[in-house]
Specification:
The complex is a heterodimer of chains A (186) and B (168).
Chain A: H1 2-12, H2 16-51, H3 54-70, H4 75-89, H5 93-107, H6 116-127, H7 134-142, H8 152-185
Chain B: H1 2-19, H2 24-58, H3 61-75, H4 83-88, H5 93-107, H6 112-123, H7 127-135, H8 146-167
Classes of the chains: A mainly alpha (186), B mainly alpha (168).
């Protein structure tokens, strides 16, 4: 991806290559500083949720569902996934990231390949069930929309359908791949 | 309405913690401490993906692809005006918010194009960014079918968004 872009620029605009890379790297640093501030607040809040035992309760609520979808037995991991998903639902993408990373670390089996639960977690995050698209509504309101929140229902419907589709696809592909493996072994 | 959600949640949490006799301050600080290390760990991955996206944009590959692919997207019911958003959405969150604001400015916040764009933003994620950051702290090198499945779902979501905004 980087190579092809640089090759094109070599012909069209060679002086832009390094300048663009540096400015992108600078904006990565800027983004990280913003993220650091965001994570500070959310990790602090999450610690409170954990310490007060609310995390446990939330996880208990979502646990049967998570157990079925992710096929994980560890209660600790189930809890991390539950918190990751609930943050996503509230439109707090940035808050869900630290939990997602932690859950991934807990799921890692060291084989170098993503396992079923890890793939599922990425797909569920990618289709992102959003109950409240807060940022989008905010932007739309400031652009002078008459009714900025009227996209909530369409968003809900679409996000629900794509999430279900994602889960079904992961299950199907997992089944197909296992069958193939079995077939290859015998 | 939505402005009240977070403050109310926070108040509930703090009251609950006090009720449970938990030292709010100590626990908050303990959690917040983890943020610096986390950001330091994920910075190189974020930098790499942002550099790649910047090069793609400035080299004109994205707009070239947008032109090239628009007949395909049009056939799926996705208007040409949304192709750039659809192409960049999987890579960059802040970048796609920039495009969204452009769309609002060009077509008006209540137009069909803008509403579609909103729903697309709501039902999709920065797939490559999420995948990079999530696996950055694990030993995983191969994601197998995770990315293709995520992309297919996003595309289906985009098609549905364009359909649903016509009737709702």
């Amino acid at each position: 991806m980087m190579l092809s872009s640089i090759l094109v620029l070599l012909v069209t605009n060679p002086s832009a290559v390094l300048a663009e890379m540096l400015s992108a790297s600078a904006s990565a640093l800027e983004l990280c500083i913003q993220l650091c501030a965001v994570y500070c607040v959310w990790l602090g809040i999450i610690e409170l949720v954990e310490a007060s035992g609310l995390g446990e309760k939330l996880a208990k609520l979502l646990r049967p569902l998570i157990k079925k979808i992710f096929r994980v037995e560890s209660q600790e991991t189930q809890k991390l996934i539950a918190m990751n998903i609930s943050a996503n639902m509230l439109g707090l993408g940035n808050a869900s990231t630290p939990m997602g990373i932690k859950a991934m670390q807990a799921l890692d089996d060291g084989s170098g390949k993503a396992n079923f639960a890890m793939i599922m977690l990425i797909v569920v995050n990618a289709t992102s069930i959003q109950l409240l698209p807060t940022t989008v509504i905010g932007l739309r309101a400031s652009a002078g929309s008459a009714n900025p929140a009227d996209i909530i229902f369409p968003t809900l419907i679409v996000t629900f359908l794509t999430t279900v589709l994602g889960i079904v696809l992961v299950f199907t592909l997992d089944k197909l791949l296992r069958k193939k493996k079995k077939g290859g072994a015998t | 309405m939505s402005v009240y959600i977070l403050p109310v949640l926070f108040v509930t949490l703090f009251v609950y913690c006090t009720f449970k006799k938990i030292n709010t301050y100590d626990h908050f600080v303990k959690g917040a401490k983890g943020a610096i290390k986390l950001v330091v760990d994920i910075f190189p991955f974020i930098a790499a993906i942002l550099i790649a996206v910047a090069l793609l944009r400035v080299s004109g590959i994205t707009s070239f692809l947008a032109n090239l692919l628009s007949p395909f997207f049009n056939a799926l019911g996705i208007p040409t005006e949304l192709v750039e958003l659809v192409l960049l959405r999987p890579f960059t969150g802040s970048g796609s918010y920039g495009i969204l604001e452009n769309i609002f400015a060009t077509y008006g916040a209540d137009s069909y194009i803008s509403r579609c764009a909103c729903v697309i933003m709501g039902c999709s994620e920065t797939i490559f960014y999420v995948a990079t950051v999530y696996i950055s702290q694990t030993k995983v090198k191969k994601l197998l079918y995770a990315i293709p499945v995520a992309l297919v779902c996003s595309l289906v979501g985009t098609i549905l968004a364009c359909l649903i905004c016509k009737v709702m």
